[in-house]
Every structure is written in structure tokens, then in C-alpha cells.
Amino acid sequence: MEDNRTTPQSDDLPQIRSVRISDDPYAGPFWEDGVHISSHYDELSAWIGISKELFDKIAAWHGTFNANATPPRWDPDRDEWIAEKERRRSKLTKELRAEIGGRFRIDPTPGR
């Protein structure tokens, strides 16, 4: 299968150096140093070379585990929910590193 994804080379494209998966509820899951990169597959594919399959997995994680979805403090399942969110983020971060880590630093820490 031919890989048509590219890494940005032009000055008019974002110069992305690192990628972090975030649970920010107001933007998508792809961030670099506090700046939202994009929520659109076509842009991310061109800019960082992410596959559609991994993009969809990360988008699904974000839809389930974004910060607005966190159960309230009084919920007895809250700690388990947060732990599962972080387990899945860690797994997706490893997949992202395997897929694009040769071209970009993959930041494993939560946040933006």
C-alpha cells in the first residue's frame, strides 16, 4: 500500500515539532505546547502523517474521555474512570509514537 501522507515542508504550513493527546473539552485532542493543532483528519494527515485508523481511535477516545465528561467528585466510579482514561491515553500515545515519532516528539504528559 502506498503512503501518500506528507510532512510539512512549506513555510505556509504549521511547523509542528511535537504532538500531545489532550482531553481539552473545547478543542480536539491534538496539541503542541498549549496550541491546538487541528481536529480535521485531512490537515493532520498532511501535517503530521497520521493514519485514518489512528486518528479515528484518538478522536473516539476524546469523545468519550474529554474533560467535560469527567464524573463528579462524589461519583464512586470517578477514580476508575480517570484511571481508564489515562490507560487509554497512554496506549494511544504509544501508538502515535510508533506511527509518527520518527518525525515528531510525542509528549506523553496529559494536558495541552
List strands and helices in order, with pairings.
Elements lengths: L17 E4 L8 E3 L2 E2 L4 H8 L3 H14 L12 H23 L4 E3 L5
Parallel strand pairs: 1-4
Antiparallel strand pairs: 1-2, 2-3
Helix pairs in contact: 2-3
Report on the structure:
The chain has 112 residues and is an alpha+beta fold. Helices cover 40% and strands 11% of the residues. The protein is built from three helices and four strands; from the N terminus they run βββαααβ. It has a four-stranded mixed β-sheet with strand order 3-2-1-4, with helices on one face. Strand 1 and strand 2 form a beta hairpin. Helix 2 (52-65) runs antiparallel to helix 3.
* Largest sheet data: 4 strands, mixed
Uncertain runs: 1-9
How many helix segments? 3
Percent in strands:
5-15%
Strand order of the largest sheet: 3-2-1-4
Mean pLDDT over all positions: 87
Distance between the termini: 34 Å
Gross morphology: elongated
Helix content: 40-55%
Number of strands: 4
Structural class: alpha+beta
Compute the CA-based radius of gyration: 15 Å
What descriptors fit this protein?
four-stranded mixed sheet; 11% strand; 112 residues; alpha+beta
